[in-house]
């Protein structure tokens, strides 16, 4: 997919939707002094070109006992890294996967509500993925800030 250039209005629309994605095209148009049709066509272009995606996001602070686990995974060999990352990305429990340089080969993130679920997931699922040599993890203690507008979109 080719990249498109964004102008100031595109950035303003994205910023406005970042505050409230349920706002109507008419309301955005009113705020910016533009027609609803102009906003609708701009949004269609942004969505069609996968510049933005409208999605519901879980507020982790509203969960009973949220634990965001960062899984730092070492692969057996460099040749195992891509397949390992793709296997992790296919798991519904995993919300984020990236290959890394440095302390681990792959970083994966998952959100759970209790330590027992995390332990079971690590031992029954992650440890059994071909190519996994070692899994280290870091657990969140308390959520301070997460700006959901900066989540990466991947195809």
Describe this entry's structure for a reader.
The chain has two domains: 8-48, Arc Repressor Mutant, subunit A, CATH 1.10.10; 60-139, Alpha-Beta Plaits. The chain is 34% helix and 19% strand. It has five helices and four strands, in the order H-H-H-E-H-E-E-H-E. A hairpin with a 6-residue loop joins strand 2 and strand 3. It is elongated. The relative contact order is 0.16.
A few lines on this structure:
The protein is 34% helix and 19% strand.
Radius of gyration: 20 Å
Strand order, biggest sheet?
2-3-1-4
Helix content: 25-40%
Shape summary: elongated
Relevant CATH superfamily of the largest domain: Lrp/AsnC effector binding domain/regulation of amino acid metabolism (RAM) domain
How large is the count of helical segments?
5
Number of strands: 4
**CATH domain topology of the largest domain:** Alpha-Beta Plaits
Residue stretches low in confidence (pLDDT < 50, at least 5 long) are none
The CATH top-level class label of the largest domain: Alpha Beta
